[in-house]
Amino acid sequence: MTESKMNPKVDDFLIKAKQWKEEFVSLRSIIRDCGLTEEFKWKHPCYTFEGKNVVLIHGFKDYCALLFHKGALLKDPYGILIQQTENVQAARQIRFTNVKEIAEMEAILKDYIHDAVKVEKAGLEVDFKKETDYIIPEELHNKFNEIPALKTAFEALTPGRQRAYILYFSQAKQAKTRESRVEKYVKHILDGKGLNDK
Question: What is the Cα–Cα distance from 135 to 132, expressed in whole angstroms?
């Protein structure tokens, strides 16, 4: 495969990187060897195949990672793909804490990237749970009856935001806790914000 064209926005991202700079440069080099198109999305280097998102480079406080957009569909012979949280359905990460790890795994990483491209070539899609698979807790229903505008605001939220609220409210074992959680986020929902939006 041929090396892809460098994107100036990614160059800029790397120049400004305060943490994981060396690791990002190494990951970029590996991915570019795989012939993907280098783009810049969600404030991160993102690599696409025929317009489809394949893999993204991102960093956190304790690690940096490759994020495979359809990682749930990849074979994982080395057991290195990580599901960030139980609510993440499609994406999977491979995490790193230093540049040496990345260098040692170069051939493996390229295998995973090529596998991710095969998933796109085959047109495979992750079978997402539908919103109807998530049961709205009684406490939220009661609040909808009390404040009809809340139901309208909730239904206007993105499916992901709705799901996050439903899961958060439902996780509380006691009705009292569920009620207080719902109460706490009424204004947030009315303002069209997700659970973690400031």
Answer: 7
**Which residue segment(s) compose the domain that 138 sits in?**
131-190
User: Do 53 and 106 have their domain in common?
Assistant: yes
What are the CA-CA distances from residue 186 to residues 38, 69, 137, 189 (Å)?
41, 32, 14, 5
Same structural domain, 56 and 143: no
* CA angle (9 as vertex; 70, 56 as ends), nearest 5: 15
User: Residue 196 domain-assigned?
Assistant: no
Same domain, 20 and 111: yes
CA distance 66 to 54: 10
What is the value of pTM for the model shown? Answer: 0.66
Specify the amino acid at residue 41.
Answer: K
| Structure confidence at residue 177 (pLDDT) | 92
Q: For 142-158, what is each residue's pLDDT tens digit?
A: 999 999 889 888 888 88
Q: How many structural domains does the chain have?
A: 2
Distance CA 81, CA 28 (A): 19
79, 147: one domain: no
